[in-house]
Amino acid sequence: MEPEPIKKVSIVVSKGSLDGIYPGLIMANGARMAGIEAMMFFTFFGLEGIMKETMDHLKVATVGNPAMRAPKDWGGWRIPTVLGGVPGMSTFATHMMKQEMENLDIPPVGEFIEMIHDSSGEIYACKAAMDMFKFKPEDLCDDVDGILTVGDFYEKSAGAQIIFT
C-alpha cells in the first residue's frame, strides 16, 4: 500500500537566529512549491523572524553550536565551541552564511516571508509569546496573517504534519 502523500504542514519556528529561522522558511516554501498547504507559527524567539525591526538583521548563533563549520571552499574547518563566544565571531559567521546563501540565490528573510505569503502560505505569531514580550500587532511585518493562541494553532493544524524547526 502506498503511503498517503502529505497535503498540509504546520511549521513551528521557535528560534530567533538566522540558522533557526531559515529551516522553517525553506520547508514552507518547498511545501508551497510542491502544492502542499503550509502554515508557519512563530513563537518565543522565533518571533524575531517576523518582526519589522529584526527580521532582516538576524545573526547566526555561534555559542554552544558544536556543528558550526566553515563551508568547504572556506577551508571546511570546524569552529570549536569555545570560539563561539569570541567577540565578532557571530558577525563573522553571519556574514559567511549570508554570502553563501546569496551565492545560492536564497532570498533574505523579509523577501522569503513575502514569497511564502504570496503563494498562499499562512504566517502566524503566537499570542502567548507576543504577550510575554509585550509586542503589539503593529510590530509584525505586513505579511503576518494574524496572532493565534496555541488552541487556535492546533485547530488550524487539523490533518497537518506538525514540524518543529
CATH architecture of the largest domain: 3-Layer(aba) Sandwich
Enter the CATH topology name of the largest domain. Hypothetical Protein Ychn, Chain: A
Individual helix count: 5
Strand tally is 5
Taken from the alpha-carbon principal axes, the silhouette is globular
* CA distance, first residue to last residue: 30 Å
Helix content: 25-40%
Beta-strand content bin: 5-15%
**Domains counted in the coordinates: how many?**
2
Query: What is the gyration radius calculated from CA atoms?
Result: 17 Å
- Tell me about the biggest sheet? 5 strands, parallel
Task: State the secondary-structure class.
Answer: alpha/beta
Report what the structure shows.
The structure is a single chain. The chain has 165 residues and is α/β, with parallel strands linked by helices. The relative contact order is 0.23. It has five helices and five strands. It folds into two domains: 107 residues, DsrEFH-like (Hypothetical Protein Ychn, Chain: A, 3-Layer(aba) Sandwich); 47 residues, no CATH class.
Features:
globular, 165 residues, Hypothetical Protein Ychn, Chain: A, 15% strand, 5-stranded parallel beta sheet, 5 helices, alpha/beta
What order do the helices and strands come in, and which of them pair?
Elements: E1 8-13, H1 18-33, E2 37-42, H2 89-103, H3 109-118, E3 122-126, H4 127-132, E4 146-148, H5 150-156, E5 161-164
Helix pairs in contact: 1-3
